[in-house]
Design a protein that fits this description.
single chain, 220 residues, alpha+beta, Fumarylacetoacetate hydrolase, domain 2, seven-stranded mixed beta sheet, five-stranded mixed beta sheet, 5 helices, globular
Amino acid sequence: MARLPPVVAPRQAALLERWRGELAAGASRVGWKIGHGIPEVMAHGGDCPVVGYLTSWTAIEDGGVWSRQGGDLRAEAEFAVSIGTDVDATAAFNPAAAIGGLCVALEIVDVERRPGDLDGVMGSDVFHQAVAFGPTLSVAAVDLGRATLQLDDTVHDADEPMPDPLWVVRTAAEILAQFGERLLAGDRILSGSFIHQRVGQIRLASAAIHRLGRASLRIA
């Protein structure tokens, strides 16, 4: 089972409390993001990811405009898993049965922080700034092809392997269960990036995965 290190767990709890506060203030639930390979988290033991949240306050329509803000901005190509049925991770469950579909996702993150600042990582909702989703394919798994991230006229290929969708579902479900939350039908889970590039002054970002589709944002 995915279990957070003792130093990280209270920060994860505080992050989820901020999410509850946003929902109470009028945001709509969209889903979650997997944050893996983060040095500030790994420094406290193990390689267990953390889970950030997605709400309507940062979800941008595919092809829509996001107003540039933040310090060290990066664009990330990912896929998102759409949850088709509620998941109770306190009991045995089948991640494949929970998957309602997959889609391409494009996330904007702001990775500016002081080195070693775990509170900064978790307090920033694991760097999250904005996300756009492409159309969802109603499949539990697909033989995903080449992934690319296009920033204006420059095309970047994947520099990390794509995660397993089953791992994405199980990891998010198990971490959330430790804090009294669970995946619900309609949630989307960002897989974690496999292409990660500096935004700079680019005006158009587009993520694509062969046989899955595309998602894009215009940056003002």
